[in-house]
Automatic annotation (TrEMBL):
GO-annotated molecular function: DNA binding; DNA-directed RNA polymerase activity; zinc ion binding
GO CC terms: cytoplasm
Species the sequence originates in: Roseimaritima multifibrata
Pfam families: Toprim_2, Zn_ribbon_DnaG
InterPro entries in the cross-refs: DNA_primase_Znf_CHC2, DnaG_primase, Znf_CHC2
Protein name: DNA primase
Record's keyword annotation contains Ribonucleoprotein: no
Gene Ontology BP, a term: DNA replication, synthesis of primer
Domain Zinc finger CHC2-type residues, every copy: 24-86
SUPFAM superfamilies in the record: Zinc beta-ribbon (SSF57783)
Length: 294
């Protein structure tokens, strides 16, 4: 096997030999949980040009580059030896790459359109959350996607990896790589929310301007990513608007400690006292629209 032959190997086949299957497909790209580290959500993609890109590190390249990166090899010769051991002979051919991308795992969801909100059922859901206002709609999209040959649609809130948190009245999930969502970087204060409905609630109740800087975690497990982003933003103040359940309280405590260590001159303020007695800010908000606050 020479260098040119090695570069003809479909990346999807190499990854399959290594025990990695794609999580979802988007257009001509397959997305994976990165083979370069342990992660729960995909941040690694390959395309039909047989190139890979790892969003967490910014590293990218061809088959040989990936083998070198995975095995901490220093030369192409070493990578070729490792490929021979992994793949053997004969090899899959480069001509198969586009076919593999098009046909592999029909169950992988694929986004078919991203549009302004128009669905009456999605708009009704927003109204039920007290969020049917122009500021909220501006932040959201109607996502249509296919899975197993069936079509679905949901409210989508974009994250920093150009993927989406999804909501309907019956479904809560994500499409693509799980990541935080940063809005309007540049303010001296950063507001942190656990989910996007709480973020939109803060805007709707004029607790926050739609132009203010905010970080939506999209999962309490993304504490490290949240802290790293806030450190980059380097604000004078951070306000936390997290849930009142055990997970939310733990996240509040952890973020306060982590930010205190990384940004000792930045004040960290827990604003959850505003909605004491409710699970989160949106629950407080919807209750206030239907009767007196308890």
């Amino acid at each position: 096997m020479n260098i040119n032959q090695a570069k003809q190997l479909p990346l999807s086949d190499v990854l399959e030999r290594l025990g990695h299957a794609p999580t979802y497909r988007r257009g001509n790209e397959l997305w994976y949980c990165s083979p370069l580290r342990n992660e729960a959500e995909p941040s690694f993609k390959i395309n039909d040009r047989n190139q890979w890109y790892d969003f967490a590190t910014g590293k990218h390249g061809d088959v040989l580059d990936l083998i070198q990166e995975l095995n901490k090899l220093h030369t192409v010769k070493e990578a070729l030896v490792e490929l021979r051991r992994l793949i053997g002979e004969p090899m899959p051919q480069r001509a198969a790459v586009k076919k593999v991308i098009a046909t592999r795992q029909a169950s992988i969801p694929e986004i078919t359109s991203v549009e302004p909100l128009r669905s009456h059922s999605l708009i009704r859901y927003l109204k039920s959350r007290g969020l049917d206002d122009p500021a909220s709609r501006k932040q959201l999209r109607e996502i249509r996607y296919t899975r197993d040959g069936k079509e679905y649609f949901a409210i989508g809130f974009a994250n920093d990896r150009d993927c989406y948190e999804l909501r309907t009245s019956r479904f809560k999930g994500s499409l693509g790589s799980k990541a935080i969502s940063t809005r309007n970087p540049g303010s001296e204060s950063v507001a942190v929310f656990e989910g996007f409905t709480d973020y939109l609630t803060a805007i709707s109740r004029h607790l926050l301007s739609s132009n203010d800087t905010a970080v939506v975690m999209n999962s309490a497990s993304l504490k490290e990513a949240t802290v790293e982003q806030i450190v980059k933003l380097s604000p004078n103040q951070v306000t936390l608007w997290l849930d009142h359940d055990a997970t939310g309280r733990q996240a509040t405590n952890d973020l306060t400690a982590m930010l205190g260590a990384r940004l000792p001159d930045t004040s960290v303020v827990d604003r959850s006292e505003i909605y004491v007695g409710y699970e989160d800010l949106n629950a407080f908000h919807t209750a206030s629209l239907t009767g007196p606050i308890r």
